[in-house]
What does this fold into?
Amino acid sequence: MSRKNSKSVTATLTTATCALLGTTATTPVNAQEEDTWEFDTALLYYAEDNDRVQDISFKMLAYRNFVDDRVLSMSLGVDSLTGATPIGAITFDGPQTFTSPSGGQVRTVPANEIPLDGSFLDTRVALAANWQQPLGRLSAFNAGVSASKEYDYLHLGANFKLSRDFNNRNTTASLGLAFSSDELDPVGGAPMPLTPMLDVDDLSNRMGDQSKDIIDIVLGVSQIINRNLVVQLNYSYSSSDGYLNDPYKIVSLVDPVTGDPVPRIPTPGVEGPSHEYIFEGRPGERTKHSVYGQAKYYMNGKVLDASYRFMTDDWGIDSHTVDLRYRWPFGGQSYLEPHFRYYTQAHADFYRTSLDSSQALPLHASADYRLGEFDAFTVGLKYGRKLDSGNEWSARVELYSADGSMPADLLIGNQGGREIYPDTDAIIAQFSYSFGW
Amino acid sequence: MKISKISRVFALAAALVLVASGCSSMGVEPWERDILAKDEMQLLSDPLEASIDDHIYFSKEASSGGRGFGGGGCGCN
It folds into this structure.
């Protein structure tokens, strides 16, 4: 990334010289004499405890910097995912049998264990390209496309961004638009929301491919306050429309007194679920609003990066995120960067740990733990070193811990005191190398 | 979209404009940008790490975006 640095310094010096001489640069300053390439690469290991999700991935971001300030950037990401994830069914002191997502077999979860899906193996490949172009002296235009593919999911997206500098380039305002069109092709077909999990080979409540469309709008202002402080404020609007369910998530139907799952007897001669479960059903639309603020403060070589985000949506979820990083250079070419992140969210209006079998089904219901009420902390440390060549490597290790809380009004019968919310503990380890020529 | 949501959006847009107009008295001269030009002082100083973090938290939490676009792109949520 050293080239970017030298480019900015050169641009600053040229502008300063022009200002001192009483002239103005009439064309964008050409800060470099030839086109350059820069590459950021990273290897990531992400692992949750209790044999849950593991991800090993390789990410690369390549920049082609042209002499006239145009920039082409391209990114590639390959994720290899394994492990298991909670399916939403409630924990119970007896074994529970579930039909697999494909509908072709059953699997049994032992008593008192949080039901997870069968271990999965998935590969995700993501590609993106972005073109950045100055528009005159003070404005810039960005346009990009993105695509990603998993075996049951396809994403296609496009984004645009316009930015303009004001106040002697101390203020930058930007407007961004992004469109995303995603297709789901779940194993066995997407289940109809709020219909029962059926016996093996009964796919009568499965549908064909499903889709969702997402529109994002981001309005942003960044401001240089003084020589050591720069701040940013963004407002984001996001609207999703279509099949917003997780096709593999279910909700237990429980007895109103005991709070235990209601037993079910499969059709004679056929394997099937041991208890009554229904596939989750979320609303077909979601609108989110976010406000994001960030400050970067330089303190005699050290840099504090602090940000806060508030999000609210029409599913009833409010969240707060605080992120702090402190870059502490030492020895001329190295730095340490502690990282702390705190996240808290309220549960969605339709989040349920389980459903009372004596009541009519609600319009929407999901037991997905990610729609529940929880707090999460991330604590991490990064070490980075710049080499004599100008290239740089860094390594970081972080711990992520999410703990759910269960409002009493969501518990049914004697569910109090049971382990209902699947907490998450994960380790994030990353090695990065940046180079250019 | 409800009226209250629309008015909230307009209020936020107005706040952004106010912030931008109020900022005209702040800032630095062109020759005072030596520190601000450093890589580590860019608002997005490590785009690759930021995208990795965004992807992790998008998969585990009900919120996304804010810093940039938040929608779509993964079957993980």
User: Anything to note?
Assistant: Residues 373 and 406 of chain A are 7 Å apart (CA to CA). Residues 34-436 of chain A form a domain with the Porin fold (CATH 2.40.160.40). Confidence is low (pLDDT under 50) at residues 1-30 of chain A. Chain A touches chain B through 107 residues (CB under 8 Å).
